[in-house]
Amino acid sequence: MLDGCVPWPPETAEKYREAGYWADRPLDTLLTDGARVHPDRTALVGPEGDRWTYAELDTKAARIAAGLVELGLRRGDRVVVQLPNISEFVVAIFALLRIGAPPVLALPAHRESEIVPLCELSEATAYLIAEDDGAGFDYRTLARTVRKAVPSLRHVLVVGEAEEFTALPEAKPVPLDDSDPSEVALFLLSGGTTGTPKLVPRTHNDYLYNARASAELCGFDEHTVYLVALPAAHNFAFACPGILGTFAAGGTVVLSPTPSPDDGFELIEREKVTATAVVPPIALLWLETAEWSDNDLSSLALLQVGGAKFNAEPAARVRDTLGCTLQQVFGMAEGLLNYTRLDDPNEVLIETQGRPLSAADEIRIVDVDGEPVADGESGELLTRGPYTLRGYYRAPEHNSRSFTEDGFYRSGDLVRALPSGHLVVEGRVKDQINRGGEKIPAEELENHLLAHPDVHDAAVVGMADEVMGERTCAFLVVKNGSAAPILRELTAFLRERGVAAYKLPDRLEILDTFPLTTVGKISKKALGRLLADG
Ligand code: OOB
Q1: Per residue in 250-277, is it b (16+ CB within 10 Å) or e — as a string?
Q2: Is the pLDDT of residue 533 over 90?
């Protein structure tokens, strides 16, 4: 395994192979197999209306792979990929898988303060961007800063006008060795709780199983038309079943530039989309828009909602308003996926966040002492299994806290289990804010706030919000003699530091001192109560 990764114990790996969870095939066979078996089927429809058969997509990926090899990229090199929902995202990922240079999947919303640490942690040799995000942000400007800050970066590759950088290269396909399926195929970003980013290594074996088993559970087949409404680089849209699961089933992937009902509904009608995935705030917007929209949504059979808790009230409206089956998905970049089943009774679809994907997923629900709770009680969810990581990349110290000695991942989520095995998410013990599915590590944002010249101390907490689930409140104690900043100044300061827009606080509260716990730490519970009391 790549240096810095934690493998499964050999006897566990053997068990997963014998039971057929791990197929021992490289992840990019999803595309090569498709091109061999049904070359002329449509694999991908891009946001410009560009259409690609399996054969065309496979050839294009092979050409880009050859171009990247010619440029000097080698097996084991890491490449930070930050692309919007465009066809080149899919092509480039398969090209990188083919040459065995694991992509690190950054989100389009990330900025300097996320991308620089990601490049450093992964010691990336290349950073792949689009010229812009289609909404006016120029990634080449960001790349200039990133390149200066990260000496390991040898190439900035650009889809579109490259300016002083390198255009995504193409060359005549060359034969390439297969990847070792037990190796890392790609890195996902953890939602995180700490001040520095954490990378989740996903192997060919575990991620192929993740995609295939998800596609099977969701009933995907060659007639599936899957709309990528969320960022393609997010695990949910990428492989749950998402893009990879659709390819596994021989279906068609349609890329939407945004998750808005404007874009999504038009594509559903035009391409006869059958399935898609959204986060709860988008589901709310779709439910509202569907009440008056003229678009024909009758092809849509499955709406997956996950990333944050979807409340029962809107959940109950999905079938009648959108005319499709709701599936709740409670997943994590780290691995474990919980899905409601398509034939679950209505109250299970509405009231629960699903149950584990795999018969080999092991879960424990434990109290603060790590002891299993009584049946039906709520506690922290721990898990291990054939597609759940055994350790973050190059993070031994963090790993010693995030995993039990016997390899269970501590999810930080509070859940309770029903007798049927379905889980209900009740909250969280991790110091993170879940703003409509976008994760904000509290410590990271606090560190940025502490860098402000007038700030003595900072704490961020989530505040309940009907649409987003949570929004972010920053509590500050100001330095002696300093004037308190206002929210607008503070967010300008954070933007200047290159913090992604979704991490900016929605509200600011100035306190004289922070409430403390008995051991003298800032009491976020007490801060939360201040918000609740208005
Ligand atoms: C998905 O993945 P991440 O890595 O962005 O975030 C994982 C965390 C979970 O630990 C949990 O705290 C929260 O997001 N979460 C949910 C949820 N789905 C995720 N909380 C309540 N209800 C849900 N349905 O968010 C993700 C990955 C794959 C598929 C779907 C979501």
Answers
A1: bbbbbbbbbbebebbbebbbebebbbbb
A2: no
Q: Which atom of ligand 1 is nearest to the CA of 438?
A: 5
| Closest C-alpha to 302, from 281, 283, 288 | 283
Buried b (16+ CB within 10 A) or exposed e, 317-330: bbeebbebbbbbbb
Find the mean pLDDT for residues 219-227: 98
Q: What is the pLDDT of residues 361-393, one digit of tens each?
A: 999 999 999 999 999 999 999 999 999 999 999
DSSP state of 503: G
DSSP reduced 3-state for 238: helix
What does the block give as tokens for 357?
């994907």
Ligand 1 center to residue 534 CA distance, Å?
Answer: 28
Q: Which residues contact 20 (CB under 8 A, 6 or more apart)?
A: none
Ligand 1 centroid – CA 154 distance (Å): 34
- Among the residues of 383-520, which ranges form H helices? 396-402, 442-450, 487-496
Strand 378-384 and strand 409-417: the pairing is antiparallel
The pLDDT value given to residue 2: 87
The whole-angstrom separation of Cα 425 and Cα 351 is: 10
What is d(CA 464, CA 190) in angstroms, rounded to the nearest whole number?
23
Residue 498 has pLDDT above 90, yes or no: yes
Residue nearest to atom 25 of ligand 1 (CA): 307
Select from 328, 332, 352, 402 the residue to mutate for testing ligand 1; criterion: most ligand atoms less than 8 Å from CB: 332
- pLDDT tens profile 322-368: 999 999 999 999 999 999 999 999 999 999 999 999 999 999 999 99
**Atom number, ligand 1, closest to the C-alpha of residue 413:** 12
Kindly list the protein residues whose Cβ atom lies closer than 6 A to any atom of ligand 1: 191, 235-236, 240, 306-309, 328-333, 337, 353, 411, 413, 425, 428, 434, 437, 439
Whether residue 534 has pLDDT greater than 90? no
Those residues with Cβ within 8 angstroms of residue 369's Cβ, 6 or more apart along the chain or in another chain = none
